[in-house]
Amino acid sequence: MKLRKSLWSICTTSFLVVALSSVATAGTIKFSDYGTTTVVNDDGNGKGIAFGDINNDGYVDMYISNKGGANKLLLNNGDGTFKDITKEAGEGIDDVGYCMGSVFGDINNDGLVDLYVPKGGRLEVEPNRLFLNQGNCKFVDITEKAGVGCKEFSYGAAMADYNNDGFLDIYVSNYGVGAKNVLYKNNGDTTFTDVSEEAGVADASWSWSSTFADVNNDNLVDLYVVNGRDPGGEPNKLYMNNGDGTFRDASKESGVADASWGLGAAFADIDNDGDLDLFLSNYVGPNKMFLNDGAGKFSDITKEAKLEHKGWGKGPAFADVNHDGFVDLYEGDCKEANQMYINNGNNTFTDVSDEYPALKCDKVRTKGTAFADVDNDGDMDLYVVNWAAPNKLFINETNDKNFLEVKLTGVVSNVDAIGSKVTVTRNGKLVAYRELQTASGFCAQNQKILHFGLDSANTYDVSVRFPSGRIATLKNVKTGQILEVKEPVEGTVSLNTVK
User: Fold this and answer.
1) What radius of gyration do the chain's Cα atoms show?
2) Is this structure's pTM higher than 0.70?
């Protein structure tokens, strides 16, 4: 499905019928198991999953990172099936080193998503790799030229335009004795400069993952780093963006310097008040839920939210799986069964895992998890990466018109529009809020198209604020469509009606 490159476009979607075995057939959610004999059920030592549309055909593809064994690049055929194109995609795409949280992002603004692969390395000496997308599903390794071949034990990476110069930068989470995290500033010519020290984010903790998010709504992406080590913990770090190329450590004052052994963190607006809240997966200690006051100050609401599960937390991912207007939470666990939490709309969640046992992936060790609409039918499907056991793709069969998906394209901002904020209102009242990010959770990246669950009986106003500060507003938007919004060249653009 190709999307027209205009300020807005509507794409008709239809549910793709594939051979599925039933997982859940009643209640508030409905998922089906994609099957156990397809290429999506890679059974390597899985670590990470990254979703990205590598050939711009309108269907999301996936890259699976394995800690030992070959990585896999799977092309979405657009009919509910995937094709393994790893071997023909380019030398190194099938990397057999210890690969972790890979991430897609268009580093040179040519309209093609590129791929960064962090590596632990069997001997902790293997460099990370950056692959440039050549088009036609081909990639070439430009690591040495780009200057991003970090040789620490890298566990995750995230992309964002931290200085709003229109190019995506890369942050690498490293762990081990003396290993510091690295911020690579994009020079705009497919080369990067290590600015970790001068930017103030050369964290020397044992870091497992990181994610960029604007927590205080100043249109500058901040940085959250998840840390931890055996036998105890290590405080996580929240770095606030100063807007001059530097960050300051605001971990303690913000209230999210959790000192457990953390592995994954995901930001989402759980209460639809227009700011990003934070869920933290802890490997040692209970998981945590933090509510944002809108200015980057967080309060711990874990107990009242009923999210204090204590297992070996790893892979959190948010999405509105039942189209009731509130984001739900899937939590991958490396020791106990995974959990599926439904958002009750009052800052509490209900674990419905026992009602849908297949979603629990019981008796396997889950790593990264991510949501994406793999069949373009308007609801969020779920991918679960498992260790030494088949990965799982669960197809969401909500199949209604109670959704809106928003695809963004930057012009002045980075082409991927990473860091953009989308607000949905009705009669002047905020209904939902999303921010476009790359890495989220643990070794995971959700789809780039933003998804909303909305009542199809109504129309809505949609406003997009791009990293440049430019704003596009669309009035009277109907649900049941994929809406493409292109960044205005200048100022603010408003359309009264979307047909």
Assistant:
1) 20
2) yes
